[in-house]
Amino acid sequence: MRLDKFLKVSRLIKRRTLAKEVCDQGRVMINGKPAKAGVNVSVGDELSIRFGNKTVTVRVEKIAENVRKEEAGAMFTLIQEEVKESDSDVLSS
């Protein structure tokens, strides 16, 4: 399954077009390497997604074309959620 479609189906990112943009900006890594939207995702892959100052790392557990909202969380396991302080927060302290 394509990376952008997995991000949308698993509900990590709400829209596929947004998932494609995030991938093309280099904000998604698969197993530590930058990944484009068209890269295939496999079970066991680790995805790191950067949302502004927050980085979410998940492991792909299941791949399915159509998933109900309640089942979307079973497609991945959250490994780490890291929030980095912005430079302005550090300077004002």
Question: Mind explaining what this structure looks like?
Answer:
With 93 residues, this protein is of the alpha+beta class. It has helices spanning 3-9, 16-24, 87-92; strands spanning 28-30, 33-34, 46-51, 54-60, 76-83. The protein has one domain: Structural Genomics Hypothetical 15.5 Kd Protein In mrcA-pckA Intergenic Region, Chain A (Roll), CATH 3.10.290.10. 24% of the residues lie in helices and 28% in strands. Strand 1 (28-30) and strand 2 (33-34) form a beta hairpin. Helix 1 packs across helix 2. The mean pLDDT is 89.
The CATH topology name reads Structural Genomics Hypothetical 15.5 Kd Protein In mrcA-pckA Intergenic Region, Chain A
Share of helix, binned? 10-25%
* Total tally of structural domains: 1
The CATH architecture can be given as: Roll
Q: Helix-strand pattern, N to C? A: HHEEEEEH
Biggest β-sheet strands, sense, barrel: 5 strands, antiparallel
The number of helical elements comes to: 3
Q: Could you state the oligomeric state of the chains shown?
A: single chain
Counted beta strands? 5
Low-confidence segments, given as residue ranges, are: none
Shape: globular
The CATH superfamily appears as RNA-binding S4 domain
CATH class descriptor: Alpha Beta
- Strand-residue fraction? 25-35%
Distance between the termini: 45 Å
- Mean pLDDT metric: 89
Radius of gyration: 14 Å
Briefly note the structural class of the backbone.
alpha+beta
Strand order, biggest sheet? 2-1-3-4-5
Organism: Thermoflavimicrobium dichotomicum
Subunit structure: Associates with stalled 50S ribosomal subunits. Binds to RqcH, 23S rRNA and the P-site tRNA. Does not require RqcH for association with 50S subunits.
InterPro entries: RqcP, S4_RNA-bd, S4_RNA-bd_sf
Protein name: RQC P-site tRNA stabilizing factor
